[in-house]
Amino acid sequence: MSDYPNVVLLSQPSLQVATLVSCLRAKLDIPVQQLRDVAEVERISIDDNLLLLVDTDNLSATSQEQLKNKLKQYHGMFRLALINLSDDTTMENISTWPSIFGVFNKRDELDVVCKGIQKITEGEFWMPRRTLSSLISIYRSTKAVDLDRKPELTTREQEILRQLMTGSSNLEIADALYVSEHTIKSHLYNVFKKIKVKNRLQAVSWAKENLI
């Protein structure tokens, strides 16, 4: 990611949200844009600098599905973290969110949430090891790729996937391969279609299993 990530929080105003925003602004030293409704997502720029924080406790199931559908077309082009997850949230539900990079439960301390979000802006995943392992298992078991007929990836596409495995952002991959960030986004869009994945975590899982 660039030095100036675009952090957007989708949630209803509350004391808890205000405290979280204050913590993030103090740690990240950048503004945190707040949205109240799924429809407002249309107003933000969805690119590699975006970290979208979704407060699942303040979104109905219908609104969550609407948001997922809006974001699917941008899979791999941004980062997303779910906050205030309830204990009964299933791994299957989490796996349906595109570009998932972090999950935070209702019981997580504020300092832990702020630290995790900071790490995500730096290109890392933030979720319990068991959750990460479970998600990778789900992605592997549900991927619609015929292993006897693996998609043909170009040398450049394979290079980009290997860079993706290191946790690099689109901008970092572009710098490493001496191409534009737009070129990387186009390559990722094509790669995701070829290997039939919806987000970067799924792509990393596929690459670990299929790239030599």
Give me some keywords for this one.
5 strands, 212 residues, alpha/beta, 5-stranded parallel sheet
Radius of gyration: 17 Å
Overall structural class, as computed from helix and strand content, comes to alpha/beta
Q: Helix proportion of residues, in percent?
A: 40-55%
This entry's quaternary arrangement is single chain
- Contiguous helical run count: 9
Largest beta sheet: strand ordering: 2-1-3-4-5
List segments where confidence is low: pLDDT < 50 over at least 5 consecutive residues.
144-148
| β-strand amount | 5-15%
> What characterizes the major β-sheet?
5 strands, parallel
Number-wise, the strands total 5
Average pLDDT reading: 85
The general outline is globular
**Would you list the SSEs in sequence order as H and E?**
EHEEHEHEHHHHHH
End-to-end separation: 27 Å
Summarize the structure in words.
The protein is an alpha/beta fold. Helices cover 48% and strands 13% of the residues. Helix 1 crosses helix 4, helix 6 packs across helix 8 (181-195) and helix 6 (155-165) packs across helix 9 (200-210). The radius of gyration is 17 Å and the shape is globular. The two termini are 27 Å apart. The model is unreliable at 144-148 (pLDDT under 50).
Task: Offer a concise description of the structure.
This protein has helices at 15-28, 61-72, 91-95, 110-121, 129-142, 155-165, 170-177, 181-195, 200-210, and strands spanning 6-10, 32-35, 50-55, 79-85, 100-105. It has 212 residues and is an alpha/beta fold.
Write the layout of secondary structure elements.
Blueprint: E1 6-10, H1 15-28, E2 32-35, E3 50-55, H2 61-72, E4 79-85, H3 91-95, E5 100-105, H4 110-121, H5 129-142, H6 155-165, H7 170-177, H8 181-195, H9 200-210
Parallel strand pairs: 1-2, 1-3, 3-4, 4-5
